[in-house]
Design brief:
Blueprint lengths: L1 E8 L5 E11 L2 E13 L2 E11 L1 H8 L10 E13 L2 E2 L1 H7 L4 E6 H9 L15
Antiparallel strand pairs: 1-4, 2-3, 2-5, 3-4, 5-6, 5-7
Length: 131
């Protein structure tokens, strides 16, 4: 999963490095988010994010209300895990990024429909089988 993210940065300090985040969906840890070669400068910053996720948890969430009724826009929460710059761990930046969850809404249902031509139906069950 890939996503372009824009984020304002108000601090006077510059952050550089490879960053990982815990990735939660509906309160469940579903994987890790990565931002490679992140440089945050004062002002607005735009960067690419990628993630490895538990696809079963994502598909199950897509089939639950209200997500199956809003084109599959899912509210992922991310919280900083690690920051590494030139092989050196930067715990002070990791701690700052890990101090609170940030919600990132991603139109996963739209992406699945566009690439696979599948619409995940609403279900009263906790899990869904598509195939």
């Amino acid at each position: 999963m890939n996503r372009l993210r824009s984020s304002p940065h108000h601090a006077d300090r510059r952050l550089q490095g490879n960053v990982t985040f815990y990735n939660y969906l509906l309160g469940e840890d579903v994987g890790t988010v990565y931002i490679d070669n992140l440089t945050l400068l004062r002002g607005n910053n735009t960067f690419n994010m990628r993630a490895s996720v538990n696809t079963t948890a994502v598909v199950n969430a897509l089939g639950r209300k209200p997500y199956c009724e809003n084109s599959g826009v899912l509210p992922f929460e991310i919280r900083g895990k690690t920051v590494v710059n030139h092989g050196q761990s930067l715990p002070y930046f990791a701690d700052a990024l890990g101090s609170a969850n940030q919600t990132v809404t991603i139109p996963v249902g739209e992406a699945i429909n566009a690439s696979l031509h599948i619409v995940v139906p609403c279900s009263n069950k906790r899990s869904i089988l598509l195939f």
